[in-house]
Design a protein that fits this description.
Blueprint: E1 4-10, E2 19-25, H1 32-42, E3 47-53, E4 56-62, E5 67-68, H2 73-84, E6 94-98, E7 101-108, E8 111-117, E9 122-123, H3 130-134, E10 140-143, E11 147-151, H4 155-160, H5 165-169, E12 175-181, E13 188-194, E14 199-202, H6 209-220, E15 224-229, E16 235-242, E17 245-250, E18 252-259
Parallel strand pairs: 2-3, 4-6, 11-12, 13-15
Antiparallel strand pairs: 1-2, 1-18, 3-4, 4-5, 6-7, 7-8, 8-17, 9-10, 10-11, 12-13, 13-14, 15-16, 16-17
Length: 267
């Protein structure tokens, strides 16, 4: 059967803000080349593909150019789609089997909380040209499992950065997080860039907060943080660090629902 396809704005309580993700609900596995083609067609930072798998769902994420190992906003969007369409009871948590292990999502009133692995950054010397590509002087640089993390001097420095995307795309790694403490009523401000993965600037990045959470929890001396990603669309996350796990809290809004015109091919 043709698969249902949704576009859902994640980490926001209103449409046309936060980070849009496409969610494709499949009956079983689909071909990887087909999933990549659909993600390129959707041209969003992430398209999620999920199908029933035991007591939960198998979940994969694709940018317009590549599969990624961890994605927060498209996981939040996937959980939202399953609850909103009645495929999963709103009172039940959802377990997703992914390239980053089992991730869970549960409803807490109007919020969705996701249990993700922490990816705390380690101090590392910035690769040549990173500061120049960002147009700022880093106070601290480090490397997480996926990304470079750069501490800027202030939230204003983060918001005002105008990176050179061609130079950033040449930096080894998935992407670059820039961050500072405080800003707009939040504990933490950040932005995220991954031009090498077809994402010049990601509006709101759940997986980046798997690194930001441990980084700022250690510096600010508290485990619960309100985080603002200061992109043009913007978004708010509630982040709680629990040892080697990070709880990411956010909201989501469905923008549209449709169906693919053809049945997805089997792998």
């Amino acid at each position: 059967m043709p698969a249902p396809l949704f576009q859902i704005d994640a980490f926001t309580a209103r449409a046309f803000a936060g980070n849009p993700a496409a969610v494709c609900l499949l009956e079983g596995p689909a071909g990887e080349a087909w999933m990549q083609s659909l993600a390129s067609e959707m041209n969003l930072s992430e398209t999620a593909f999920l199908h029933p798998n035991g007591d939960g769902y198998a979940l994969r994420w694709f940018t317009p150019v590549a599969e990624v190992a961890l994605c927060g906003h498209a996981t939040l969007a996937s959980a939202h789609a399953l609850w909103e369409t009645g495929r999963t009871d709103p009172g039940e948590a959802i377990a997703f089997t992914t390239l980053s292990g089992t991730l869970t999502a549960a409803r807490r009133d109007d919020w969705i909380e996701m249990d993700f692995p922490a990816t705390a950054p380690e101090p590392a010397q910035a690769p040549p040209g990173l500061g120049e590509a960002l147009g700022l002087a880093p106070r601290w640089t480090g490397r997480s499992r996926f990304d470079w993390l750069v501490e800027a001097g202030s939230p204003a420095d983060v918001a005002g950065a105008r990176p050179d995307m061609a130079r950033l795309a040449a930096i080894e790694g998935r992407g670059v997080i820039i961050t500072a403490a405080g800003g707009d009523g939040a504990d933490v401000t950040s932005r995220y860039f991954a031009p090498a993965y077809g994402i010049p600037e990601d509006p709101v990045t759940g997986s980046a907060h798997c690194a930001l959470g441990p980084f700022w929890a250690a510096r600010l001396g508290r485990e619960r943080l309100v985080c603002h990603q200061a992109s043009a669309r913007g978004g708010i996350l509630h982040v709680e660090v629990r040892g080697d796990r990070v709880i990411l809290g956010g909201q989501a809004v469905t923008v549209f629902e449709g169906r693919l015109a053809a049945e997805p091919p089997a792998p």
